[in-house]
Amino acid sequence: MKFNIDKNIFETFPGVLIGALTLTGIDNKGQSNDQLKALLQDAQKIAKSKLGDILVTEHPHVAPWREAYQKFGAKPKKYPSSIESLSRRVLRGNDVPCINALVDIYNLVSLKELVPVGGEDLDKIVGDLSLTFATADEKPVIVLGEQEPKKPEPGEVIYKDDEGTICRRWNWREVERASLTESTQNAILVIETLPPLERNDLERALSE
After folding, report:
1. How far is the C-alpha of 65 from the C-alpha of 62, rounded, in Å?
2. pLDDT band of 67, cuts 50, 70, 90
3. Cα(184)–Cα(53) distance, rounded to whole angstroms?
4. Which of 14, 133, 159, 164 is deepest in the core (most CB within 10 A)?
5. Which of 127, 116, 128 shows the shortest CA–CA distance to 174?
6. Residue 142 and residue 177: Cα distance in Å, rounded?
7. What is the distance between the alpha carbons of residues 4 and 128, in angstroms, rounded to a whole number?
8. CA torsion, points 144, 20, 23, 188, in degrees to nearest 10?
9. 151 φ, ψ to 5°?
10. What's the alpha-carbon Rg for the chain, to the nearest Å?
11. CA-CA distance, 119 to 189, in Å (whole number)?
12. Would you put residue 22 in left (φ > 0), alpha (ψ -120 to 50) or beta?
């Protein structure tokens, strides 16, 4: 499998950085242990402290994603980026739920560093994985949290494989088909940053 990024992504969103980690032969069975649950709780406190009293929409880790979404025609108020959704949840005092160990780990890194982090099951990806712009020929998909299949809008930033869209509106919501589960053994985790964040910020999140 190759991970392809459309060169126009870099031209349209100057300064964007994409970091990827591949994991093989992992054991994701069972619920998160007490240590991981505690780390997730700590990450929520760190995120709340970093967000401070600044409006979420104006925070330097969130505002650039709102601008990026507007560039490809998505209303950020209706379709918030993953980091905006997590940030709002924390500020409302709602705990980020435990899902499975790998998802909990990427959520706690996302919260600690205030960057979008996502993951997919490599064994469920068909062909190559691509970060690109949707065309008018994309197949309708059902994203998590919705009931009806819908086609990505032409020009929308999506992750896709040879079967179709995996994640809509860049990092807004994924489809269930390739999501990480307790049976996942091989995975790819992706971290994305936009200016003012720099390479060292991305590498710190990847290291974490």
Report:
1. 6
2. very high
3. 39
4. 159
5. 116
6. 9
7. 7
8. 20
9. -85, 140
10. 16
11. 4
12. beta
Rounded Cα gap, residues 47 and 96, in angstroms: 12
- Binned at pLDDT 50, 70 and 90, residue 130 comes out as very high
Q: Which two tokens stand for residue 112?
A: 């600690």
As given in the structure block, the two tokens for residue 28 are 């994701």
How far is 58 from 74, CA to CA, in rounded Å?
A: 18
If pLDDT is split at 50, 70 and 90, which confidence band does 31 have?
A: confident
Question: Is a pLDDT exceeding 90 seen at residue 32?
Answer: no
Is this structure's pTM higher than 0.90?
yes
Give the span between the Cα atoms of 84 and 141, in whole angstroms.
Answer: 23
pLDDT surpassing 90 at residue 78: yes
